[in-house]
Known about the structure:
With 122 residues, this protein is mainly beta. It is 5% helix and 33% strand.
Amino acid sequence: MSQLSKPEIDFFEGPAPTELVITDLVVGDGAEATPGATVDVHYVGVEFDTGEEFDASWNRGASINFPLGSLIAGWQQGIPGMKVGGRRQLVCPPHLAYGPAGGGHRLSGKTLVFVIDLLGVS
């Protein structure tokens, strides 16, 4: 599988969505992620309103490996069905990310955009 490079996320126009928005940027042809799977991913996350990057596995030079059940709801809902080799964009409103404003996380109350590359499933 050819390794994709770190994605650039374009700034969004208009109001933030109130539901999860899933967009396949590259459709993979490998194993499919299931709701209970452990996934190996590279990702970039930006704030919807500002376009400012708040996190990226690319910057650490290593992918992350997590059970889907331990991730934010937007990832739990947005990654299953994705296939290894794919790249998917998820726009997660606050209730599917870190909760409403004042929730104690620095990203609480924010709509977040992630571009996720699925590298492996187990």
